[in-house]
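Recall the central idea of this unit: under ordinary conditions, the amino acid sequence of a chain determines the structure it adopts. In this exercise we apply that idea directly, starting from the sequence alone.
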Amino acid sequence: MILEEGFEFNFTVEKIIDLPDESYYILLSEFDKKYLLPTKYYDEYNLKIGKEIRCRIDRINCNGRVFLEPKSPIYSIGDKDIFTLLEVKQKEKHRTKDKYLVIKAISSKTNRAIVVDFSSCLNYSLGENYLCEILKIKKAEMYLRLISKV
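Accordingly, the structure predicted from this sequence is:
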């Protein structure tokens, strides 16, 4: 089986292991190969041992390491919902260490959402509710686009 970024496959949550750096789910693919998935991002996903989940191949690095993104049980790309904007935070890109700003947001379904490109949003107010569209899901974090104030 050839893995390609963007394709989805079924995986079974086999067990949880603790390694020196963090805890991981061991996922068994539909073609009998095992993969690691960090546990720290997926609390809201209710992943249980023995459960079958669908994952997208998010990225394959130059060393051949495969990064998976489980299908969210909460939202799908393109979904719209009401989010409350909480605070502006600085984040850092993993590879380049470049810093960028995001707005942390929450909804009635998740507390793991951010608005990345808010520079085009001229009049946003922290603490206010906005109708947002889910643009991307990465490490169980919803990337949002502000549509309108509610």
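The chain has a mean pLDDT of 92.
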